[in-house]
Amino acid sequence: MMKEVNGQTRLCGLIGYPVKHTLSPVIHNYLAEVTKKNLVYVPFQVENGLDDAVKGGFALNVLGMNVTVPYKKDVMESLVEVDENARRIGAVNTLVRMENGYKGYNTDYLGLKRAMEEEGVSLKGEDVVVLGAGGAANAVVYLCASSGAKTVYILNRTLGRAKQLAQHVGEYFPETELIAMETADYTKLPDKKFVVIQTTSVGLHPNVDEAVIEDQGFYAKVKKAVDIIYNPEETKFMKLVKEQGGEAYNGLKMLLYQGVIAYELWNDVSVDAHTCKKVLELMTKKLQG
Ligand code: ATR
Questions:
Q1: What are phi and psi of 178, to 5 degrees?
Q2: 3-state helix, strand, coil in the chain (%, to 5)
Q3: Which of 72, 198, 200 to mutate to test the pocket of ligand 1 (most atoms within 8 A of CB)?
Q4: H or E segment at 11?
Q5: What is the maximal distance between C-alpha atoms in the chain?
Q6: Residues 249-286: tens digit of each pLDDT
Q7: What is the pLDDT of residue 1?
């Protein structure tokens, strides 16, 4: 049945470029239906004029927006307030309507947190390896340190970026040891079992046969792993982890929960577990085309 749009319909949307392949409309329009909110979620392709887009959205009474590549950092300049964790991470992906403008949050980090809790991947007191030091790694390393990881090894092709990230997050969490390394030096990791979070774009569709590290010796040290990639459903990295007896999860639940948490912030509701499961099924179906 066609959704009824009327004089009281509220609008939410996603600002980014490109936005063509986003799954967010699937998440939010389904949630609106189930929670009986008169709300429509649409993609906003913003090629330039980010500030105009944010201000224009506010003027048009848009209830909330998500923000994706390449604007997660720059959007902060257009907001009236930024949540403390988002500010420290240096990225905002969710805008919540306030009286005079939008407040920015980072639900990527909150989404990964909820996904990992549900999958039983704990970070507290753990030795963690984060592969990559790009935009996504900022939220991931921040999550590890804020969750009380004992040591976080940040492995990146470009050592300088890993160093910068370690230093930045280390300022907020002096109790977590943050160690920057070049990815090629993975053999120097101590002889321990690690929780590993894969944040690079290596292995992303269509390059499904690639992994940032191929050596089985590395994977023998992995007890639990998350790849934040969700397309393909099982990345080469995940396959390599499983071959050595470790547990591996993809990034689809992170994507699910970053959306659910944004929806909860916009609508002041709490989405139940059954509904979350339904949304996940829908997302999986969409991905399979
Ligand atoms: P994102 O916001 O998705 O994290 P990004 O900021 O461009 O995107 O970061 C991409 C990450 O994947 C970086 O850690 C990058 O390593 P560099 O900092 O050395 O560029 C990593 N990455 C991308 N392609 C890679 C490749 N072919 N081999 C190894 N690492 C790669």
A1: -110, 120
A2: 40, 20, 40
A3: 200
A4: strand 10-16
A5: 63
A6: 999 999 999 999 999 999 999 999 999 999 999 999 99
A7: 61
